[in-house]
C-alpha cells in the first residue's frame, strides 16, 4: 500500500448570486466564465494528509458582476512513511483528484441545476496526469 483513502467529504460549498439580474444574465454570459480546478494538501496527523480538491466557476474578465461558485471536496489519505517525493506528488496531484473528481463534478452540477441552470457543461473527465506533467514543465 502506498496510500489508502480513509475518508471523503464536502469541505465547503459556496454558491452566491447576489442580484436577480446576475441570475438572469448568467445563461447568456456563461461563455465569460471558465472552470478552475485547485488542489491543496495539508498534514493532518501521523501519516495522514488532507487533500482538498476544489472546482470553481471563475470569470475570464473582471468587467461585469459575477456569481460565486466553488465546491471543495476533502479527502483524508493515509500514506506510507517511506514514500519518495515524486510518488507523494502523484498521489496528491493525480491519483486522489482522479478518484474524487466525479463526485465533485456531480455536486457542482446538482447545485447549478437546482438553481435553475439546466445547461451547465463541465467536462466529465479531467486528465490530472496531463495537468501534473504540464505544471512540471
- Remind me, CATH topology? Bacterial Protein-export protein SecB
Oligomer: single chain
The strand count comes to 4
Known CATH architecture: Roll
- Model regions low in confidence, pLDDT < 50 over at least 5 residues: none
- N- to C-terminal separation? 29 Å
Q: Write out the strand line-up for the largest beta sheet, numbering strands in chain order.
A: 1-4-3-2
Number of domains: 1
Q: What structural class do the secondary elements suggest?
A: alpha+beta
What gyration radius follows from the Cα positions, in whole Å? 17 Å
Element order, helices and strands? EHEEEHH
CATH class: Alpha Beta
Percent of residues in helices: 25-40%
Q: Please outline the major beta sheet.
A: 4 strands, antiparallel
Tell me the layout of helices and strands.
Blueprint (H helix, E strand, L loop, with lengths): L2 E14 L3 H10 L3 E13 L2 E12 L8 E12 L5 H30 L13 H9 L1
Helix pairs in contact: 2-3
Describe this structure in words.
This protein is an alpha+beta fold and 137 residues long. The protein has a single domain (3-136), classed as Bacterial Protein-export protein SecB (Roll), CATH 3.10.420. Helix content is 36%, strand content 37%. It has three helices and four strands. The chain has helices at 20-29, 85-114, 128-136, and strands at 3-16, 33-45, 48-59, 68-79. A hairpin with a 2-residue loop joins strand 2 and strand 3 (48-59). Helix 2 (85-114) packs across helix 3. It is elongated. The mean pLDDT is 88.
Amino acid at each position: 500500500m502506498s496510500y489508502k483513502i480513509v475518508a471523503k467529504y464536502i469541505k465547503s460549498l459556496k454558491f452566491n448570486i447576489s442580484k436577480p439580474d446576475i441570475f438572469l444574465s448568467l445563461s447568456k454570459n456563461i461563455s465569460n466564465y471558465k472552470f478552475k480546478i485547485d488542489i491543496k494538501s495539508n498534514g493532518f496527523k501521523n501519516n495522514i494528509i488532507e487533500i482538498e480538491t476544489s472546482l470553481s466557476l471563475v470569470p475570464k474578465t473582471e468587467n461585469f458582476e459575477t456569481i460565486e461558485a466553488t465546491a471543495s471536496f476533502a479527502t483524508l489519505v493515509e500514506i506510507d512513511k517511506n514514500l519518495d517525493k515524486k510518488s507523494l506528488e502523484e498521489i496528491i496531484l493525480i491519483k486522489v483528484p482522479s478518484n474524487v473528481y466525479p463526485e465533485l463534478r456531480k455536486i457542482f452540477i446538482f447545485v447549478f441545476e437546482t438553481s435553475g441552470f439546466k445547461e451547465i457543461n463541465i467536462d466529465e473527465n479531467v486528465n490530472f496526469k496531463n495537468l501534473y506533467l504540464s505544471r512540471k514543465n
